[in-house]
Amino acid sequence: MAIKLYGWSSSTPCLAVALILHEKQVPFEWVDVDLPKKEQRCPEYLAKINPFGMVPAIDDDGFVMHESRAIARYLDEKYPDQGTQLFPKDLRQRAIVDQATWGEWFHFFQTSGNMCCQAMSAKCVLFAIDVKDIEERKKRLLATLDTYEGVLAKQRYIAGDELTIADLVHIPGSSRLLEEVGVNLGEGRPNVQRWLDELLSRQTWQKTKLMFKDHVPKLN
């Protein structure tokens, strides 16, 4: 039985889990959860899928779990010899990957995710962009990228010289920032640009994007 992935296709973490499933070469069924209609807050979803009323979540033959990073670790351990290895075997290398992955959450996603949400909402005429807030978040994001530039000058990927989950979780947000907000993260940062060019050209990401190419978010 294929894994069910519960999500909303305008959610960056949901896109990340879809990407990870493709990286691990695991077939899955997409179950659309309409967040604007608050389907994630319905009693059945709260009782059976995620009591916090959020996405993404997976159902693997009755085993249900949520949180994108926890899902990634579960999939990597369940399919250790299949597809891309997301986490290293070595304890210290794995700790560095965890460090970089959580660093992405705090230093990258918290700013980029909000910028994408504001841009999408404004496009759907739900509310106007808070220009001051966007500029402040962009300033913090660019500072993070300056740090990344230094890191990537010394190594091929964000957590070392091997591709890991720490790189993959950056892909959906980086793609959305470029396409929806018009922010080129690699501008003036050759090492970041080299890293992003490699990540965004991955077949697994192109396959993930193709799944949702006709999706137009309706927020009102």
Strand content: 5-15%
Distance between the termini: 35 Å
- How many strands? 4
Largest sheet: 4 strands, mixed
The helix-and-strand class reads: alpha+beta
Strand order, biggest sheet?
2-1-3-4
Instruction: Please count the helical segments.
Output: 9
Q: Helical percent range?
A: 40-55%
What is the alpha-carbon Rg in Å? 17 Å
Q: Helix-strand pattern, N to C?
A: EHEHEEHHHHHHH
The parts where pLDDT drops under 50 for at least 5 residues are 216-220
Protein described:
The chain has 220 residues and is an alpha+beta fold. Helices cover 54% and strands 8% of the residues. It has 9 helices and 4 strands. A 4-stranded mixed beta sheet has the order 2-1-3-4, with helices on one face. Helix 1 (12-23) packs parallel to helix 3 (68-78) and helix 1 crosses helix 9. Residues 90-219 form the GST C-terminal domain.
